[in-house]
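User: Look at the shape:
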Amino acid sequence: MLAYIDKMKPRIIVIGSSCIKIQPGTHSGIALANLASDGEKSISVAPRTNSHLLPEDVHRFEEAFEGAKIVLAQLEIPVKTVEEASNVAQKRMQFGFSSSV
């Protein structure tokens, strides 16, 4: 994978902040990386704010999907929200499973 990344052309990626949902009274969550004595790794996640991102929020921010070449979703938000984002994004959806499996 590193060889592939090294061959990629440098580019500027702009991430807007107009679609941020504020959830008063809660923190963003906690993720703890665990390493057992036998070398087994795991991540323990206690989601907070991420669990408040709901399917209706996808439609509230639907304009953010327009023109996107790819939409990346981590499964740190509710599965129903990821499903709704996938429906809106259609074939441009990519998933990241690293901290949810």
